[in-house]
Amino acid sequence: MSEHGKHGAPLTETQLRVRALESLLVDKGLVDPAALDALIDTYENKVGPRNGAKVVARAWVDPAYKKRLLENATSAIEELGFVGRQGEEIVALENTPHIHNLVVCTLCSCYPWPVLGLPPVWYKAAPYRSRAVIDPRGLLKELGMPLAESVEVRVWDSTAEVRYLVLPERPAGTEGWNEERLAAIVTRDAMIGVAKVAPPAADRP
């Protein structure tokens, strides 16, 4: 078994444990490798940030859809075919030049799987969960996104009953872009609220 992941980076201790457990289960015949591959493919390519990016892109180009998304995100997301476990009740939060939304789960790692996939390790880590509540503005600055004092930061705590999807601001320079092109620039972190969607390369300083 290789001890390197994608791009040749060494695997973390957790990743090594997962690999070992996976091998053990397969060797004992408790897990079908094909079924495991299908499950991984589902969460990496079908149930994940790509879905959320499509939702954001649609909201950016279709005002009527955006209105439905902000009024009833669960229903609007279902319109695009994204449903499933951990997506029974999702609320969309719109970022504006004056309001920035940040999502956290202080108790565990509640997360909208149908549109964001599985939560990243840092989202589940205690430092993020505590800093997001105690000092969200400082946390965002450390993550490379300092906000002006005039911008209100709103922190939303996900629960087993309600999960959140941030609708990031559409960057300047994307006027006339189609949904597919817009979706390609939307990141998972922007939909959690720890990053902004970067403007097109030509417009960056």
Care to describe what's here?
The chain has a two-stranded parallel ribbon. Strands 2-3 form a two-stranded parallel ribbon. With 205 residues, it is mostly helical. 45% of the residues lie in helices and 11% in strands.
Mean pLDDT metric? 87
What overall geometry do the principal axes of the alpha carbons give? globular
Tell me the distance between the termini.
43 Å
Q: List low-confidence stretches.
A: 1-8
Give the SSE layout.
Elements: H1 13-27, H2 33-46, H3 49-61, H4 63-71, H5 73-79, E1 90-94, E2 99-104, H6 113-116, H7 121-124, H8 126-134, H9 136-142, E3 152-157, E4 163-167, H10 179-183, H11 188-192
Keywords:
11 helices; disordered N terminus; 205 residues; two-stranded parallel sheet; mainly alpha
Describe the structure in brief:
By secondary structure, this protein is mainly alpha-helical. Helices cover 45% and strands 11% of the residues.
